[in-house]
Amino acid sequence: MKFTKDAEVDKADSWADWAVGKSLHVTVQEIVKAGFTEPTPIQAQGWPMTLKGRDLGKTLANLLPAIVHVNVQPILAPGDGPIVLILAPTRELAVQIQQEATKFGASSRIKNTCIYGGVPKGPQVRDLQKGRW
Prior knowledge:
Elements: H1 15-18, H2 22-33, H3 41-51, H4 59-71, H5 91-105, H6 122-129
Helix pairs in contact: 3-4, 4-5
């Protein structure tokens, strides 16, 4: 995963620090709308490291750089594959990741789906056919 200079932030003491470019501005709007008033100390230190490619292991900390990455890519044509693939060890975590991806990717019109075993395949196949990945 590669991020542009647009996505580089050394430390984020406020959400305004994150609104450094078009790709982050929209995501920051979703964060504020969700009721987060400012980054936690961990987020202020951790997200810049994640944007530089380091794994912090937290759902949102890792999801936000993926959203930024999607935002700077050309629009996909029908039949193109997904831009980001997130693997989770459990169904519960996969569903949690999808909920966060839906919430924080909404303003960017990012589509996603959650694929896992133990349920009918039909709805999951339809999501993939409709480009919800």
